[in-house]
Structures are given as structure tokens and as C-alpha cells.
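#struct-help
A.M.: can someone run this one for me? Single chain, 139 residues.
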Amino acid sequence: MNRALAALAGLTAFLLAVAAPASSDNSARVAGKATVATSKTPLAAATITIRDSSGHTTSVATDKSGRYAAIGLEPGNVTVSFEAPGFLSQGRTCRVPGGETGRFDFQVNRIPRVITHMTSGPVYRCDVEPSTVDRTTIQ
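D.P.: on it. C-alpha cells below:
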């Protein structure tokens, strides 16, 4: 019986030792959410790329609620980038200390559609405002 108690105590000590590093882990973490800027609709299956201060890069996908998370990053400057078909890419860098979680939320806009019209006459260039037309013929 003493042997069984000793084995149980040893197993308990082992399990506590294995679980303890998770609470004292000094790695950095990032988490956030990706949504459409105009409607606040979550973006599922967007690619989030994370580069930590050691240069290690990892990519994760957003879930159906637009959320993502990555753990085990080297503390320091962390760059997080967003990409999804049909949306403008975004990225930002922030310092994330060890043992902390950096929050990177992305509110993204769709890629604007470009409308072209071909004519047989001269081609005009439209500048900043659609109502302003530069009457210089493009060669």
C-alpha cells in the first residue's frame, strides 16, 4: 500500500510539474478578430500571419466568428498581418512582453472595383475625385 501511495504521489508530482510551465510560460501570445469595417460581419477563413521578434513566422486562419489566436511566440516586436480574397491587406507591429497577450483586431475594407470604359476617341485620366477629369490625352 505504501508503494501505491508513493507511486500516486510521484505521478501527481509529475503531472503538476508538466502543467506548471503553462502558468509560468514567458512566451508571448496574440489574439484578435477580423471583421468587415462597414458591417462588422466576422470574416471566417482569413489568413493571419504572425512574425515574432526572432523572425519565426506562423500562419493561422480565423474561425467562423472571425477570431484567431497564436501562442508560443518570442516576446518583443510582433508583426501581425491580415489577408483574405476580396479585401485590402493590413498589418501592424506591436511590442508584446513575455507572458502577455497582444490584441490585434482587424476591421477591413473590400478591394474597390475599378470600372473601365473603352472608347474610340481620346482617353482621359480621372484623378482624385470622380467629378474631376484631367483633359490631358493619355498617350
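A.M.: thanks! The beta strands are 28-36, 47-51, 57-61, 67-73, 76-83, 90-96, 101-103, 106-108, 124-126, 133-137.
D.P.: also worth noting: Residues 25-108 form a domain with the Immunoglobulin-like fold (CATH 2.60.40.10).
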